[in-house]
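Here is the promised in-class demo. Please do not try to memorize the tokens; focus on the logic of going from shape to residues.
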């Protein structure tokens, strides 16, 4: 199996300058590749392919010293990213979705570049147990790295990322996982008021509180942004040093919040997999859940501010990332992961006692059945519905698992 490990890079001043120059070269190459595709289609009606641009890259490297200094395979990775972006655009057009044409990237919006073969342009020399070590990049030199991989493996690919003023290396390792799962079974209902509610097959109800990371950093971030607004920013002029310092403070707060959130997701997902052998949860459409309520000029939306606050709360919990991380760990540990179809099962609208369904608003936090009178917390009832649906064979077609204690 393939797993990623992210190392923080600690370049010296010379290496920092070289990394910035290399990032600029890859950014210009990416924009030039996109411009070539657009111009060829507009002028000649010709669709430029990835193979064509690889041939042009060979000519470009022979003529331009800037691009000759780049590793050839690394430059091809940049071209491949443009190709994948175009493929995704045409795929969305074909499906009738909002296309979202690939955009040109400014230096700040360009995340970084990649390498596709270990030993060609990069080489990882990890420390004992893949803890810290060195990373050698062609044209840069040996960089100190900090981080630790949970599993040892063979390096496969590498991506250099520049985020919030810091450098990272995301390395893909080919590993043999050895994670073990528990023996319990539970239905899990994600939420904002409570991060997750788990209903165990033995009747226990477990609630994971929502840390609300954005709220914790809200005051400090607002103050840092006020300082930025009072200083001279980059609108039509070169930003002042004082503005750049203020921006660094705000960026540091946002980076710390993101790191704390990711650490929380990994810790909670690990605990769940260690305790459970079956996890049932509903399929979430986060994009639809966090859609704006502003509407259009002709038909403006309602409760826009309230909806925006709810969307911030949803995104602060990172539900898609949490489910993705937990599912990957469950599969690695050979635990059973059951995706309960939300549209057909409707866990939050279904009574777990009699099966009747009734629509509820988000404000209704208690489930009260109009048919049988069953009353229970909304999230707990939804957890039971998902657990029963998984245990009683609807998900896999197997015989009812009465011995697991389905209610």
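The designed amino acids, position by position:
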């Amino acid at each position: 199996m393939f797993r990623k490990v992210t190392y923080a890079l600690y370049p010296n001043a010379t290496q920092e300058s070289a990394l910035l120059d290399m990032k600029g070269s890859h950014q210009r190459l990416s924009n030039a590749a996109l411009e070539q595709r657009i111009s060829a289609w507009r002028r000649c009606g010709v669709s430029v392919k990835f193979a064509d641009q690889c041939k042009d890259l060979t000519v470009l490297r022979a003529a331009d010293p800037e691009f000759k200094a780049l590793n050839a395979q690394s430059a091809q990775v940049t071209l491949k990213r443009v190709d994948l972006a175009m493929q995704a655009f045409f795929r969305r057009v074909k499906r009738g979705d909002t296309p979202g044409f690939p955009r040109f990237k400014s230096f700040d919006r360009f995340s970084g570049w990649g390498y596709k073969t270990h030993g060609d342009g990069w080489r990882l020399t990890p420390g004992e147990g893949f803890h810290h070590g060195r990373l050698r990049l062609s044209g840069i030199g040996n960089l100190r790295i900090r981080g630790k991989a949970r599993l040892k493996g063979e390096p496969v690919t590498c991506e250099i990322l520049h985020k919030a003023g810091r450098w990272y290396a995301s390395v893909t390792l080919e590993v043999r996982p050895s994670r073990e799962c528990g023996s319990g079974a539970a239905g899990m209902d994600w939420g904002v008021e409570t991060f997750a509610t788990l209903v165990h097959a033995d009747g226990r109800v477990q609630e994971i509180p929502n840390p609300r990371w954005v709220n914790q950093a809200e005051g400090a971030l607002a103050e840092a942004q006020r300082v930025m607004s009072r200083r001279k920013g980059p609108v039509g002029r070169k930003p002042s040093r004082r503005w750049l310092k203020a921006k660094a403070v705000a960026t540091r707060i946002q980076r710390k919040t993101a790191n704390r959130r990711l650490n929380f997701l990994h810790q909670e997902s690990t605990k769940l997999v260690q305790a459970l052998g079956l996890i049932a949860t509903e399929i979430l459409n986060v994009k639809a859940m966090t859609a704006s309520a502003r509407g259009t000029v002709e038909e403006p939306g309602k409760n826009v501010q309230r909806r925006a606050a709810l969307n911030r709360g949803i995104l602060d919990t990172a539900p898609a990332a949490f489910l993705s991380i937990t599912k990957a760990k469950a599969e690695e540990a050979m635990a059973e992961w059951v995706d309960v179809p939300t549209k057909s099962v409707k866990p939050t609208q279904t009574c777990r006692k009699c099966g009747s369904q009734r629509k509820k608003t988000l404000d209704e936090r208690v489930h009260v059945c109009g048919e049988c009178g069953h009353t229970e917390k909304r999230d707990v009832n939804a957890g039971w519905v998902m657990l029963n649906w998984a245990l009683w064979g609807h998900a896999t077609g197997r015989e009812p698992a009465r011995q697991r204690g389905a209610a």
